[in-house]
Design goal:
Strand content: 15-25%
Shape: globular
Number of helices: 16
Distance between the termini: 54 Å
Strand order of the largest sheet: 2-1-5-3-4
Length: 468
């Protein structure tokens, strides 16, 4: 058995299989304001909020295994109103006529509830980001956005939260399904030994899709959420200067901290706020998708992964971590503990790019991270990293060789583009021809942006971000 707080009341959970999602649990108990629209975290109809150390955080209920809520405070749309008195987020939707068919309304209200308690919505684009994970099929966005403008940062009274409870050890079993949440690495190692086929859970934004879209049932789930792996540390020693990013640090917290600007710019278009509250950098890398957004920019930055087992820790360059499609260098009994990102040296040009069919909430067709270090106008060091061009995130080694020790010039760049030697696949996101053409043009665009070119450029957006 485990328990959590739901709309201010303690709920005890027994006999509910660990593979049950939070959305299923809520709807089975007649809390049907939380809707199922896509069951994959794209539409926001299932948005609820969870109390965290920094306040309320909107998440997608469709992707969260129920035991991940053990010990947490959860709020759904049913818990907002005080009797007949609507919450300000609800009242704003009424006043602006923001609800049409109403299906998406509860999810929007819960995202606006989080916005009420944020103090950093000081720019229009931040408000856009707050709602980008919620879709209105009636296309009633103007009044919905007006409702957000009325309540964002309003900080209404909130008496639904008690003291934040530490995430403690959990051993939950129903039938043949088990869910473990070790509270220390000492507790983790025996579990990995006893259950070598267990699936590890951090944010579950990918694992949740395997449950909802593929119908998979995991016999054993081991959560890493209670382990001390969610840290962000600045390191300045005699031989190291940079950032150590814990594997389970939520991406929204990494984005807010903004330790590495070019990485932060990529994170804005990584996914919706609901997803980033759960998704982690470690999970994105271990997933080993060739179109994962974080890998190209991290690889370009020269990142290294810290892998730990009961025997100790080891480090690998990120480019050596991906060994084949969806396969990594993790050994049995080993986890990704952290990502080490060194400071870029002086005279470095950095770029991070994502090309997708939609602006928000879409998977990349091609992504890229570029690193070029210059000395007296010549390329002394270069890493050109692409996603979506091979079975893994990969460096364009031929193009790098064409640039190395050469002037950073348009002629040199064109020779490097001619040396791009990928053989990408074709799928519904783009043909092989399209991917090759995009890869070439991203490199051209990066060069032009680093030159401060006066030629017309696309506005800073989802297709490309750059840090000159």
């Amino acid at each position: 058995m485990f328990s959590f707080t739901l709309n201010g009341k303690r709920r005890h959970v027994r006999a509910v299989p660990p593979n049950t999602t939070l959305l299923q649990y809520l709807r089975d108990r007649q809390l049907c304001g939380t809707k199922e629209g896509c069951a994959e975290g794209d539409c926001g109809a299932c948005t609820v909020t969870v109390w965290d150390q920094d306040g309320w955080r909107a998440i997608n209920a469709c992707l969260v295994p129920l035991p991940s809520l053990a010990g947490r405070h959860l709020l759904t749309v049913e818990g907002l109103a005080d009797g007949e008195q609507l919450h300000p987020a609800q009242q704003a939707m009424v006043d602006t006529l923001g609800s049409q068919c109403g299906y998406c309304t509860p999810g929007f209200v819960m995202s606006m509830f989080e916005a009420c308690h944020r103090s950093d919505l000081d720019a229009e684009w931040k408000k856009d980001d707050q709602l980008c994970g919620n879709l209105c099929r009636c296309t009633g966005y103007r009044p919905i956005r007006e409702a957000l403008d009325r309540v964002a940062g309003s900080q209404p009274p909130d008496d639904l939260v008690g003291e934040l409870q530490p995430r403690t050890r959990l051993d939950y079993r129903v039938g043949s399904e088990r869910f473990f949440r070790p509270a220390s690495l000492t507790e983790l190692w025996p579990l990995l030994s006893a259950f070598p086929d267990a699936a590890l859970v951090a944010g579950a934004t990918d694992l949740g899709l395997r449950i909802t879209q593929r119908g998979e049932r995991f016999q054993t789930l081991i959560s890493l959420e209670a382990l001390p792996l969610d840290t962000l540390e600045r390191v300045d020693t005699a031989d190291r200067h940079g950032w150590r990013i814990g594997a389970t640090l939520p991406l929204s917290e990494l984005e807010a901290a903004d330790p590495i600007p070019v990485l932060t710019r990529m994170l804005r278009y990584f996914a919706s706020r609901q997803i980033k509250h759960r998704a982690t950098l470690g999970g994105n890398l271990v997933n080993a998708s060739p179109i994962g957004d974080s890998a190209p920019v991290l690889m370009a930055l020269g990142a290294r992964v810290v892998l730990r087992s009961e025997q100790g820790a080891r480090e690998l360059p990120l480019e050596d971590f991906f060994v084949a499609y969806r396969q990594t260098a993790l050994a049995p009994g080993e986890i990704l503990e952290a990502v080490w990102v060194p400071d870029p040296p002086p005279h470095t040009k950095l770029g991070a790019y994502k090309v997708s069919r939609r602006r928000e909430m879409d998977i990349s067709a091609v992504s890229a991270g570029f690193f070029v270090r210059l000395s007296q106008g010549r390329v002394e060091e270069v890493r050109l990293c692409y996603g979506g061009m091979a079975g893994t995130t990969a460096r364009a080694l031929g193009a790098e060789q064409a640039l190395l020790n050469q002037p950073w010039s348009e002629d040199t760049l064109e020779r490097a583009i001619a040396a791009l030697d990928f053989a990408p696949f074709s799928d519904h996101r783009g043909s092989a021809w399209y991917r090759n053409k995009v890869a070439e043009n991203l490199l051209r665009g990066f060069y032009l942006e680093t030159q401060g070119s006066d030629c017309p450029l696309l506005a800073d957006g989802h297709v490309g971000t750059v840090q000159p």
